[in-house]
Amino acid sequence: MKIGILIPQFPGQTHIFFWREILELEKMGGSVALFSTRPPPSALIAHDWSDAAIARTTYLVDMAPANAALALARAPLAALRRDLRAEPRAFARDVVLSLPAARRLVLACRARGITHVHAHSCGRAALICALANRMFGLSYSLTLHGALADYGPGQGFKWRHAAFGCAVSRRLIRDLKATLGPDLPDDLHLQPMGVDTDVLSRDAPYRPPDPGQPLQLFSCGRLNRLKGHQDLLQALRHLRESGLDARLEIAGEDDNGGSGFRIELQADIARLGLEDHVTLLGAIDAGAVRDHLQQAHLFVLATWHEALGVAYMEAMSMGVPTIGTETGGVPELITSGRDGLLVPPRDPETLACAIGELATDPARLAALSKAGRARVIENFSSARGARTLIDALTGT
């Protein structure tokens, strides 16, 4: 079975779960062609598999005059008319920018004998696929990875012509049905992201901190205000003021390669007097993330909103007790008190209390370590998303 996978700005710093799914598809006998809009900024290309991924990815941004003119001549104006009238002007701009990429996608698929493309985005990647469908009949599907409002206008057009659709959480499926209703394809699937639990396993059993030993906290996520790193810094300040010797490492970079939100975080670290207790690691590869998780006593991500949370899965797979926030689809992954803890978002004091209570309860830390890994093994392996795609494509 041949399938195209379209991922925007691939391979980015958070794209490890896409790569895992691609490898699983190939293990299951699929032949995968990779497409992307454009490469990410060089500072965000951090994985040991990035070069291999780039080498096999076809990048679709092509504004050559000839390609743009031929694409514009095939613009599906009749199919777009209703949406162009109803949507803001930004949608018309997105259509014009996406038409050349849609033509390029179709030509590449025809050359490789590919008849279906799955877009792992509901932004411009989904629009490219929908235009390719209306212009040339290319079959496509798409996965929603976060709040629909984050992916721009024209969602009705993007979903209306898809062969099937997926979302990474039940909450997102409910939101899709409430928002788009009749514009959705009949075939909708739950397709949570997943991790390789064989690779993400410990070399030695988890050990809670010894008495008097500093508490090692680890967090992993893009440096973005919505990830709540600033709240975690506030919580760390509370912990240290209460007498708990806690240290924090944060893996991830901002979307500008270090010249964006990272600067604000560095200022917060200095203002809170945490320069000797917080390390910003930047964008690091999956192997380095695994190494840091293996040394951590506790994983914390204080995100304000999260569709599901691969970083939580990675920590739980590694048997690291995990604290997340009760937002988005995170409660579908973490059952608070059973296989991790959930706290309200934007609440540094409650977060500090949760960390402090766990730090002094080694038996509870050990129990959460075991339960978290068991939860991911049972429900969130990387093979699940690949199997969902294959089953949807084959009608099984």
TrEMBL record:
Annotated signal sequence range: none
All copies of domain Glycosyl transferase family, residue ranges: 212-374
InterPro entries per record: Glyco_trans_1 (IPR001296)
Keywords: Transferase
Pfam families assigned: Glycos_transf_1
Database matches in Gene3D superfamilies: Glycogen Phosphorylase B
SUPFAM superfamilies the record matches: UDP-Glycosyltransferase/glycogen phosphorylase
GO molecular function: glycosyltransferase activity
Protein name: Glycosyltransferase family 4 protein
Organism: Aquicoccus porphyridii
Lineage: Bacteria, Pseudomonadati, Pseudomonadota, Alphaproteobacteria, Rhodobacterales
